[in-house]
Amino acid sequence: MQKLAWFFSFSLLCCFNASADITLNQALESTLKQVVQPAFAEFHAAAQEFEQQAQDFVQHTDKQHLENTRTAWKTLSRRWNQVRLYRFGPLIGESLVPVAYYFDSQLLKGKNFNKAIHQDIAASMKSTESNVSVLAQHLAQKNFKVQGLLATEILLFDSTYSLTVYQNTLPLARYLQAHAQVLSQRSQVLSQQWQDTQYIQQLLADPKHTQSLYFNALWDSLSFTHKERLSSLFKKDKVYPHRVEALYSQSSKENLSSWLYAVKQGFQAEKKIGFYALLEASGYATGEFFMMQLEQVDQAIEDLPASLNKTLSTDPDKVKLIATRLHTTMDTFARDVLNILEVDLGFNFNDGD
Length: 353
Hints:
By secondary structure, this protein is mostly helical. The protein has two domains: about 160 residues; about 170 residues, CATH 1.20.1420.20. Helices cover about 65% and strands about 0% of the residues. Strand 1 and strand 2 form a beta hairpin. Helix 2 runs antiparallel to helix 8 and helix 3 runs parallel beside helix 11. The N terminus and C terminus are likely disordered.
């Protein structure tokens, strides 16, 4: 009965062209100004809060302030997942090492930087420098492998660095604060670049090119999430819980939800504007169908009874369902969404990922 109801509503939508007058420029401008810019502003605000909590923890090295800092880190991690898909422009930059690497070091093709981070922490504890700003300057010059969200997650959630250790090792708390300061500074640069009026005007001056950048970045994010964040966790009958992102903090489920929220927000379906409106203007209800598929992925994530790694150990089929639904959604994205929007990914989708 539900399938018939969906088919009926879908058929009506196919014959209804409610947004035929929207232009690419309008869709792009509303996306950049109402979705992307606010997301980076919120990301920077979360980084500032994390820095403040880390600073308070140095002054009050007790259980409550440690928990406050952990909570702020989790919020920052979720906010990062809401901007990580915009890998063009400021997040990529012009250097050989993209700015994104300094935040997202825990997810570079499954590479494990834990050992390097522990070694850097141990080496840093030998330093006699007590000025946090100076420590932050030194830290910012180090390899991205020992920076970012993974390094701060280890410092806050790995049992190696317990509250007792912090209370007996003051330089460790200052080192955490230095990390938080670097993250805050880098997030500020990103946010400022995205809030820059001239930069937005530059993007809007060539809407077809910017649309291509946006949707190629979105495709890369969908592919990366499917391959590295989900499919890499299991192979045949074996599962690999240790490969789960944000393993120490047990926040992988929340991070996935935040990432998917950002994907959905990018289409502005709730407001019936933006790229959703462009898709609906085609008369095939592709926007509505695609959003339905995203909601199905979201529901599969919501249905996880515990964190991703725990569910992987007890009921891996629930994690596999997320990957399966996401792959189906990617099919629609590559064959229908991009076709209507006339975006070229530069490869043959039938060749696979």
